[in-house]
Structures are given as structure tokens and as C-alpha cells.
Design goal:
Blueprint: H1 11-14, H2 22-25, H3 30-52, H4 55-62, H5 66-72, H6 76-94, H7 104-121, H8 123-134, H9 144-163, H10 172-188, H11 190-197, H12 207-221
Helix pairs in contact: 3-4, 3-6, 3-8, 6-8, 7-10, 7-12, 8-10
Length: about 230
């Protein structure tokens, strides 16, 4: 996932001397500071949501003072929205269907594996979206129309496969929602996954058996041979 572009604070702030503190004493580059801010913001927002996160907490986690943080960002709302929109944009790009693919098994299998990898690789990013939904989704209001349009394109492709007899008749929209729920679970309920698998907190989770089972389960339910 590419880092969102964090813009410096207003012009008046830009005229300040370079901030000094833990990060600047180590003379990091600008990109390192922005990466530290992004990482800290993802961690705080995934744990506490927008309302429960303070700029002080983001600054402390990033190794900055609050004034230093505001040299790079105007406020937590702008940072939150930028991160949230980056999540949604990446979901649209990474998890697109091949519109002209004539192999539903390959397309769905690849889609499931990418969704699963994203859940394992970016659990905090995924939880930002989930927490926003749980908080009422106020910051997603302008996203929903596009989300419905992207989903409709996938629904149309699946319905085309059904019409050509390549998979059994089913509700394509519900199929997609089931895939989202099953893959997202490994981000939102990572702790439960480890407990049920009997794994210690830092032990890696073997993905391939999970992916194989999930792909076989979905394709079998669709009447597609794996």
C-alpha cells in the first residue's frame, strides 16, 4: 500500500524552523518522519477510532512533540480521512475483477487469496475501516455510492458466469459479502484466530492451508470445480 501524501501544515507553520526532538536529533529525512506519523496514526485509529484518538497520542507514538506533529499535519480529521480514503482506493484497485476473464474459478480464487493476504498483512488498516463502520460510518457517506458502483460491476460479471452456466445460480451480491466477511475475519478477529489455532501471540499463522480451505469452500458452494 502506498503511503498517503501528508501535506505540511499551513504556510505560517512552514516558516518555523525545522522541529527538534527525538526524530530530528537523529536527522531523519522528511519521508521517515511522514512514515512514522502514518504508522502511528494507523495504530491509534485502529485501536481507538477517530473520536478516541488524540493528536497528542499520535505524536507520542511517532516520537514527536505535538507542535512538531502539527508542522506536518493540520489536524487528526484530515489525517484520518486521508488514511481511510487510501484504504478504500487500494481495495478498489487491488481487488478488482478481470472483466473479460472467462474462468470464474481462477478469478474468484485470486480474489479470495488477495483479500486474505490483505487481512493478514494489513490488520490495523483493515480495522480502521471496520471501526469506522461500527462508529456509524459518518466519514464513509461519500464513499458508499462508489462502493455500490464497484460492487455492481462484480455482480454483473458473476451474473454473466451464471447465465453462461459456468456456476450455479446464486445471489452474486451475497456471495461477495460472504467473501468479505470470511477474509476480513482474519484482520478483525486476529486474536481469536490465534487462540483457536493454539498459537502464541508472536507465532506466524500459516496462510496457505487457510487459503486452500477457503477457496475450495467458496468454489464448491458456487458449483465450480477447484
Amino acid at each position: 500500500m502506498t503511503s498517503p501524501t501528508l501535506s505540511p501544515a499551513p504556510v505560517a507553520a512552514q516558516q518555523m524552523p525545522a522541529p527538534d526532538g527525538p526524530l530530528s536529533r537523529a536527522r531523519p529525512g522528511r519521508e521517515r518522519i511522514l512514515a512514522a506519523i502514518r504508522s502511528a496514526a494507523i495504530a491509534e485509529f485502529s485501536l481507538h477510532g477517530l473520536k478516541g484518538t488524540s493528536t497528542q497520542a499520535i505524536a507520542a507514538r511517532a516520537g514527536l512533540t505535538k507542535p512538531q506533529l502539527h508542522y506536518y499535519i493540520a489536524g487528526k480529521e484530515e489525517l484520518y480521512e486521508e488514511l481511510l480514503m487510501q484504504v478504500l482506493h487500494d481495495w478498489k484497485v487491488v481487488f478488482s475483477f478481470e472483466e473479460h476473464a472467462n474462468d470464474p474459478g481462477a478469478v474468484l480464487g485470486d480474489y479470495i487469496r488477495k483479500k486474505l493476504d490483505h487481512a493478514f498483512d494489513n490488520p490495523e488498516i483493515s480495522r480502521i475501516f471496520t471501526r469506522e463502520v461500527l462508529d456509524g460510518g459518518r466519514n464513509l457517506e461519500r464513499y458508499w455510492p462508489n462502493a455500490r458502483a464497484w460492487t455492481q460491476k462484480k455482480v454483473d460479471i458473476i451474473n454473466g458466469w451464471i447465465a453462461r452456466g459456468q456456476m450455479r445460480p446464486l445471489d452474486a451480491r451475497l456471495l461477495l459479502m460472504h467473501i468479505w466477511a470470511m477474509t476480513q475475519s482474519y484482520a478483525d478477529y486476529a486474536l481469536q484466530t490465534r487462540v483457536m489455532l493454539g498459537l502464541p501471540p508472536d507465532a506466524p499463522i500459516e496462510r496457505e492451508p487457510i487459503a486452500r480451505e477457503l477457496v475450495a469452500f467458496v468454489l464448491g458452494g458456487c458449483g465450480i470445480k477447484a
